[in-house]
Specification:
This protein is mainly alpha-helical and 594 residues long. The chain contains 26 helices and six strands. The N and C termini lie far apart (71 Å). InterPro entries: LipidA_mod_glycosyltrf_83, RgtA/B/C-like. Residues 157-295 form the Glycosyltransferase RgtA/B/C/D-like domain. Pfam families: PMT_2 (PF13231).
Length: 594
């Protein structure tokens, strides 16, 4: 349970509580903190659900939903329901194994949902690309669908599970930080994470990055409790193993959860930490194995294929990225994580985190909790900066680093509250800490609202906002999140019956939008459905790299769009532009003349 700090007990003594009643005061404080954790979690979930429909369906969500649909059918078949109504719809742009191929290869074995062929078809996870990610993120999403599909639209119901997990994590962050550093630090850490614009956007999506952030933090928090001599160590050891196993079963990055914890245990000479890692590692391995049924038949071969798939992405599925004006085929320069952090986190939060880092380092790492948070943050920053690490999609590939940055900002608030920051007189320390929390949260919330629902295009004032970032050669957008409901409404209202829309590279996301009626014209032109509009996403890394996108570049440079989705504070930077098909045809002619 969460306990009040000695500072809180001191305040209770000054208020007239007798020392004989310290346990009662601690109990009251514990109940208050648990209640506040729950309030923060519930409030976060209400906020996420209220804004769930505001975001465009992103690039990866189509792939996510398709896999969850297959899992849904598998569970129905396990329950004995083989009716046509449970069959998963297959998007035309699917890159998964087709049902016809599955039935032809499986033959009579297709009748059993437990056969090797059925598990491979219905569980397309943790193997060769494009199925490199493990399955737990899809199970989270499917659980959210079960909880929310009766009162939410299809897309929002698939987003519900990750949102619930994120809301629970916000509450857990408060409890963890309040226990170690006091309530102002707990409030600061939880709320500045929630109001980081890009993190706020990711928390809404049916994807794997926000769940990985949550599971990584929960694993570190459980590890922290397991190494304390509280008498409940084994419960926390198993909690750590389960959280680590779920993180590893969400994304390959989750396999690296224990690396900073090993370094911390060696640095602190903590035997309990080593025991936790050994026992928790066994639990995590069992959890991962249980959550990936296709591995049940061939665990060794499956591990080999999984590692080959995830360690060889540079050669199998490289995604180019524009970074400060230069296009990189796969990885970015070593300093990319530092640069991204400096320009996509609100400056006040950065300042508080810097104070927290300084406090931990200046204390020569004697602060065990702070050292653990710092080690986790540093490791994630280094991991994404390594040669061969995927560099696309801005902050997305190292999103878990931001939860530890938020916690370090909480440590910074605690440093201010205790007067440890240089030049802060003692009588001003606590008010300064409160003011810093209010300013950080207010600034983050205002910035998040100002960019809503285009927070994935947020850049802070250090680079001049989105306008400055575009001038510096950064990608304005990358995830199709800017095809928001109002943009789709414009298309739906102005597309003639029988005509379609066209993009340079279609993905299952567009198929699902059309299937659910959110994008009425077909996203794949044909003779029967000729295109009326051409859609362009302003993602220079891909537009400058792929010959198929030459038309997009020409249109953005020479044609006038009929509709532009842009930030109100940066109207000169298009995120998604819609062009008449006649303009696209004229651009093709210009290209031929060249």
């Amino acid at each position: 349970m969460v306990n009040v700090s000695s500072q809180d007990l001191g305040s209770a003594h000054e208020a007239g509580f007798p020392r004989a009643h310290e346990d009662q005061v601690a109990s009251l404080g514990s109940r208050f903190d648990v209640g506040l954790s729950c309030l923060l979690g519930v409030g976060t979930l209400v906020l996420l659900l209220a804004t769930m429909d505001d975001f465009g369906m992103t690039w990866d969500e189509g792939f996510t939903v398709e896999r969850e649909e297959r899992l849904k059918e598998w569970f129905a078949r396990v329950a004995g329901d083989n009716s046509p109504g449970v069959r998963a719809w297959s998007p035309p742009m699917s890159n998964l194994e087709s049902r016809a191929d599955y039935l032809r290869q499986a033959g009579p074995r297709a009748a059993s949902p437990w056969s090797r062929d059925s598990l491979r078809f219905f569980w397309p996870f943790a193997r060769e690309e494009p199925n490199g990610h493990p399955s737990f993120y899809a199970l989270i999403g499917l659980g959210g669908w079960v909880a929310g599909h009766r009162f939410l639209a299809p897309l929002e119901s698939y987003r519900c599970g990750p949102a619930i997990l994120f809301a629970l994590t916000i509450g857990a962050i408060y409890g963890f930080m309040a226990r170690l550093y006091g309530r102002p630090a707990g409030l600061a850490a939880s709320l500045v994470l929630l109001t980081m614009p890009r993190v706020f956007a990711h928390a809404h999506l049916a994807s794997y990055d926000a769940p990985l952030l949550c599971l990584w933090f929960l694993a570190v928090a459980a590890f922290s409790r397991s190494v304390e001599p509280t008498g409940r160590g084994w419960a926390w050891v198993f909690a750590f193993g389960i959280a680590w196993g779920c993180a590893a079963a969400t994304k390959f990055t989750g396999w690296f959860v224990p690396v900073p914890l090993v370094a911390w245990s060696i640095l602190q000479r903590d035997r309990r930490g080593i025991v936790t890692l050994l026992v928790g590692g066994l639990v995590a391995a069992l959890v991962f194995y249980a959550l990936n049924p296709p591995w049940w038949f061939e665990p060794i071969r499956s591990l080999h294929v999984f590692l080959q798939s995830n360690l060889g992405r540079e050669h199998r599925s490289p995604i180019p990225t524009q970074f400060f004006g230069q296009v990189y085929p796969f990885s970015l320069p070593w300093f990319n994580t530092l640069a991204w952090t400096a320009i996509v986190v609100p400056p006040i939060t950065l300042a508080l985190a810097l104070i927290g880092i300084t406090k931990v380092v200046a204390g020569r790492l004697r602060d065990r909790g702070g050292t653990l948070l710092l080690a986790s943050w540093l490791f994630l920053m280094v991991l994404r900066a390594l040669p061969g690490a995927p560099g696309h999609d801005g902050e997305r590939q190292f999103l878990p680093a931001f939860v530890f940055l938020a916690c370090l900002a909480g440590v910074g608030v605690a440093a201010l509250a205790s007067g440890l920051a240089r030049g802060v007189p003692g009588r001003f320390a606590r008010p300064l800490a409160v003011v810093s929390v209010v300013c950080a949260v207010t600034a983050g919330a205002w910035t998040t609202w100002l960019h809503h629902p285009l927070q994935l295009s947020y850049y802070n004032a250090l680079i001049g906002g989105l306008s400055g970032a575009a001038r510096a050669g950064m990608e304005p957008t990358y995830y199709w999140d800017a095809l928001t409901p109002d943009a789709r409404d414009w298309i739906n209202a102005r597309t003639k019956v029988g005509q379609s829309v066209m993009v340079a590279y279609s993905i299952p996301t567009f198929d699902y939008l059309h299937h659910w009626g959110l994008l009425r014209p077909a996203p794949f032109p044909s003779r029967a459905n000729p295109p009326q509009w051409y859609l362009v996403q302003n993602r220079p890394g891909i537009l400058r790299s792929y010959p198929a996108c030459a038309l997009d570049v020409d249109l953005l440079g020479h044609a006038r769009p009929v509709f532009v989705k842009a930030l109100g504070i940066a109207p000169e930077v298009p995120l998604v532009a819609i062009f008449a098909i006649e303009d696209a045809a004229a651009a093709v002619e210009r290209e031929r003349e060249r």
